[in-house]
Design brief:
This protein is α+β, with helices and mostly antiparallel strands. The chain has 3 domains: 263 residues, no CATH class; 98 residues; 132 residues, Histidine kinase-like ATPase, C-terminal domain (Heat Shock Protein 90), CATH 3.30.565.10. The strands form 3 sheets. Strands 1, 2, 3, 4, 5 and 6 form a 6-stranded antiparallel β-sheet that branches. A 5-stranded antiparallel β-sheet has the order 8-7-11-10-9. Strands 12-13-14-16-15 form a 5-stranded mixed β-sheet, covered by helices on one side. A hairpin with a 4-residue loop joins β10 and β11. α10 packs antiparallel against α11, α10 crosses α15 and α13 packs parallel to α14. It is rod-shaped. The protein starts with 16 loop residues before the first helix and ends with a strand.
């Protein structure tokens, strides 16, 4: 196992497929479509709103013009009839027949003297005597009009609850002829096309009293447009002689109000409707068509969720497990990741590959262990041969030189002394070599003593102080583990001496109840530790690869902690 300090990356994983797909493609396109769709719908509604308003304005102006025409016709009729009286009070000189008069003035005619006395009538349904009382000053206005017809204000007579309107004119004999009619009948004929729609409210109002007061002459349609009067849109504007369109929000939706004045009598005509009600079913369907994007957007979110849940997330889990497999964790790949069938099949193949790789690694480890054991055996045999044969021969040679020195003349002593020195140096070097090939004290004295002797010997050959520390109750390990630990410490110290450029080094052993921990530290230049041990050969760290393999053979926990400028710490922990 190799440890290395890496800064943790925090924040959103912008490399995630689902996040990229959602943020870069689906979300912007869907939002754009929603903006275009609902923007188009809003523009369409505004266009329809304006279209209905323009249509209602044309309709109300046409109806107001029609009413003006009918009222002008009655005014002209009463003027002509007044001139045709020619001083007769029995109406015999009228141009129109009684039937024709009844058609224009459905409540008949009345003739008054200049002082307001009733002379005669064609219809007794009205209390003509009360005209002067109900319409004070009306007859005086007719007298002052120089023969021009004058309309009265709407008023209620004895002929029921219907509102009456009169129009009068002076006759040539200085009498006053007055015709009466129900304005509701006249208005009904003029606005019948609007009322028949059933969705339009028609309101005709006339000024009443002072200020903003008014009376309702005609009302038809589903809405009570005068309930909030006099503040209801359109009423005061029409009475003030204005024509136009207003929009207001009511409990039934947005209403369009078109208004126009009836100039000849100072009345106002107002029509009102909820403009959405006149839309055809096909138009309503067309306006609702953009809403189909909403389920499309929801389906896109569902598809992304499904892809993230069943594809992306399992693949990310499988990626982490594969990374663990690459680091030698063969069990991680067995944890099910779920997802679609193809991902599960891929995991099954990876599990089979992990089993094969584990078996191959076990075989390789066994092979490496066999090679290592063979090398140790060869070293042991070579050391034994060197110790039992070569060393003994050199000892015998040294003894013979010693005997010769005792009996040789002085002229040969110097040469024999030099030869003896060379033999002794060879013996010393050969013993050092034998100790390198096979630590002769390991079997007898144990690991701690052997490592301490190794440290002292290496400290003498180099100028780096090496401190050796052992703590805890010393216990023996199996020969293979002791030999592997000895070689690992030996290789680590060689790395410190040849590569670390260190000024100090430490070898620390700690025995606990369950394990033995060995640390080899230095204060050298350090290096960047590869994450995966398989990268050791690529970086030229063959010695570290050997350490790792030896740790694997004895099932030891092996860690290397290092960074540039902070030295290196090799940690070996083995169960006792």
């Amino acid at each position: 196992m190799v440890e290395k300090n890496h800064p943790e990356k925090k924040g959103i994983n912008w490399r995630g497929f689902s996040l990229q797909l959602f943020l870069i493609t689906v979300l912007p396109l869907t939002v754009l479509l929603l903006i275009v769709a609902f923007g188009s719908q809003s523009l369409h509604q505004q266009a329809m709103r304006s279209l209905v308003g323009d249509r209602d304005l044309r309709a109300v102006r046409a109806a107001a013009s029609s009413l003006d025409h009918e009222l002008s016709h009655r005014a002209s009729t009463i003027q002509v009839e007044a001139r045709s009286l020619d001083g007769k009070t029995d109406f015999s000189s009228l141009i129109l027949s009684p039937q024709e008069v009844a058609t224009v003035f459905d409540q008949g005619l009345a003739l008054f003297t200049l002082d307001g006395k009733l002379v005669g009538t064609t219809n007794s349904n009205i209390d003509w005597q009360s005209v002067s009382t109900q319409l004070p000053g009306y007859l005086e206005k007719i007298l002052q009009s120089q023969g021009q017809p004058i309309f009265s204000k709407p008023f209620s007579s004895g002929a029921g609850d219907n509102t009456l309107v009169m129009v009068g004119s002076r006759s040539g004999s200085q009498e006053i002829l007055v015709g009466a009619f129900f304005p509701s009948t006249l208005i009904q004929d003029a606005v019948s096309s609007l009322v028949s729609a059933g969705q339009t409210t028609v309101l005709v109002v006339a000024p009443y009293g002072g200020g903003n007061g008014f009376s309702v002459l005609f009302r038809a349609g589903p809405y009570k447009a005068d309930e909030s009067a006099p503040t209801h849109p359109g009423i005061q504007e029409a009475l003030n002689g204005e024509s136009g369109i207003n929009y207001f929000q009511s409990g039934q939706g947005e209403h369009v109000v078109a208004f126009s004045p009836i100039v000849s009598v100072g009345w106002g005509l107002v029509i009102e409707e909820a403009w959405e009600d006149i839309s055809s079913p096909y138009l309503t369907t067309t306006q609702s068509a953009p809403l189909v994007i909403v389920p499309v957007f929801l389906l896109a979110l569902l598809a992304i969720w499904f892809g993230a849940r069943r594809i992306v997330t399992p693949l990310q889990k499988l990626e982490k497990q594969a990374a663990g497999l690459a680091m030698g964790d063969f069990e991680a790949i067995r944890q099910p990741v779920g997802g679609i069938e193809e991902i599960r099949n891929l995991q099954t193949e990876l599990v089979e590959m992990a089993d094969k790789l584990k078996a191959a690694q076990h075989s390789l480890r066994s092979y490496i262990g066999a090679i290592t054991a063979g090398v140790e055996n060869e070293r042991r045999n070579l050391a034994r041969e060197l110790h039992d044969d070569t060393i003994q021969a050199l000892i015998a040679l040294n003894q013979r030189i010693q005997l010769i020195l005792m009996n040789s003349p002085g002229t040969h002593r110097k040469s024999l002394t030099e030869l003896q020195t060379l033999v002794q140096q060879s013996m010393t070097n050969l013993r050092r070599m034998i100790r390198g090939l096979r630590p002769i004290y390991l079997e007898d004295l144990g690991l701690v003593a052997s490592l301490e002797m190794l440290v002292r010997e290496m400290e003498q050959t180099v100028e780096i102080p090496i401190e050796f520390v052992s703590s805890g109750l010393e216990r023996r390990l199996d020969p293979e583990s002791e030999m592997s630990l000895y070689r690992m410490v030996q290789e680590s110290l060689n790395n410190v001496i040849h590569h670390a450029s260190a000024k100090h080094a430490w070898v620390e052993l700690e025995f606990t109840d369950t394990d033995l921990s060995v640390q080899i530290r230095d204060d050298g230049k350090g290096f960047i530790v590869p994450i995966n041990p398989a990268e050791f050969p690529e970086k030229g760290h063959f010695g570290l690869l050997g350490l790792h393999e030896r740790a694997e053979i004895i099932e030891a926990d092996f860690k290397i902690r290092s960074s540039p400028g902070n030295g290196t710490n090799v940690i070996i922990k083995v169960k006792i």
